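stage 2 :: seqdesign
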């Protein structure tokens, strides 16, 4: 287990971590976990302050680990996006909750093209939302959410918090044309 990374810049963090530990006792379902933890992440954002690390890169969005533990399993990251930066299409194999601190964040969900009546083997975007500062939304798995996240082409940076029901050092990415799903080391695309 990676030890917690102290952050003195988010005053709500110690309370948030303890509330998450209590809320995840008893092995809740993914739906129960998200229902319990969305208000906790919302309260962390409402408590103000800033994550310690805002480093960003022209090479792509950046991920910064704030907290990670195994029992019960959850992890919290800051992500920083310059305009027009996107994740690949991916899934996490776990529930997740996204909260926006600064700027706007686009979220696009994907499904098999066959679900849209398309005979091709790939994936198609079937929903898109834009989250504004203070917005907190959750997703569950299984069935896993296949999605990508990104910042608007115009504007300033976007900063978001991402809470997952697992350690998230790696996940799966998709080729939208073929539908192929492959394991991916997070550092290869996140420029941490
Ligand atoms: Fe994601």
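stage 2 :: out
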């Amino acid at each position: 287990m990676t030890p917690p990374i102290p952050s003195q810049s988010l005053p709500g963090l110690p309370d948030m971590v303890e509330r998450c530990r209590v809320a995840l006792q008893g092995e809740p379902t993914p739906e129960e976990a998200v229902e319990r933890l969305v208000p906790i992440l919302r309260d962390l954002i409402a408590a103000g302050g800033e994550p310690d690390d805002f480093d960003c890169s022209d090479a792509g969005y950046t991920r910064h680990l704030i907290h990670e533990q195994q029992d019960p399993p959850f992890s919290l990251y800051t992500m920083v996006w310059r305009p027009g930066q996107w994740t690949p299409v991916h899934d996490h194999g776990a529930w997740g909750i996204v909260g926006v601190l600064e700027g706007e964040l686009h979220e696009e969900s994907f499904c098999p093209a066959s679900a849209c009546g398309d005979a091709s083997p790939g994936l198609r975007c079937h929903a898109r939302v834009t989250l504004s500062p203070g917005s907190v939304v959750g997703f569950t798995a299984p069935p896993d959410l296949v999605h990508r996240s990104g910042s608007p082409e115009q504007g300033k940076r976007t900063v978001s918090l991402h809470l997952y029901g697992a350690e998230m050092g790696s996940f799966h990415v998709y080729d939208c044309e073929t539908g192929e799903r492959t394991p991916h080391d997070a550092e290869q695309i996140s420029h941490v």
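stage 3 :: structure notes
- The chain has one domain: 12-185.
- The pocket of fe (ii) ion is lined by residues 90, 92, 147, 149 (CB under 6 Å).
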